[in-house]
Amino acid sequence: MDDVLSELPPSAKLVVKVLEYNGGLTQKEIVEKSRLSQRTVRDALDRLQENDLVEKDIYIPDARQNLYRLALAESDDEAEEEEVAEAEALLD
């Protein structure tokens, strides 16, 4: 992730940090928290999605908006599954 992120513009890096600190946010919330323009945030989100760093989901309270969150790396998913399996083994 760091290799890809290092080649992106500063605005994309800021959006990643905002999502890292706040979790899933709408584009409007990212604009408010980052103080970047709406167009800059939209461009940053597009670049981050192209590089599979950000996922876009439906924002349930308002389906007209999207919820953006950091994409989990496959290794993170595998590590989490291993932790769950170990916890279940301890319970048995």
Describe the overall structure.
It comes from Salarchaeum japonicum. This is MarR family transcriptional regulator. InterPro entries: WH-like_DNA-bd_sf (IPR036388), WH_DNA-bd_sf (IPR036390). There is one protein chain. By secondary structure, the chain is of the alpha+beta class. The chain has five helices and three strands. It has one domain (2-91): Arc Repressor Mutant, subunit A, CATH 1.10.10.10. Strands 1-3-2 form a three-stranded antiparallel beta sheet. A hairpin with a 7-residue loop joins strand 2 (54-58) and strand 3. The protein is globular. The model has no long low-confidence stretch (mean pLDDT 86).
Question: How do the helices and strands line up, and which of them pair or pack?
Answer:
Layout: H1 2-6, H2 10-22, E1 25-26, H3 27-34, H4 38-50, E2 54-58, E3 66-70, H5 74-91
Antiparallel strand pairs: 1-3, 2-3
List keywords for this structure.
92 residues, alpha+beta, Arc Repressor Mutant, subunit A, three-stranded antiparallel sheet, 3 strands, 62% helix, globular
Give a quick precis of the structure:
This is MarR family transcriptional regulator. The protein is an alpha+beta fold and 92 residues long.
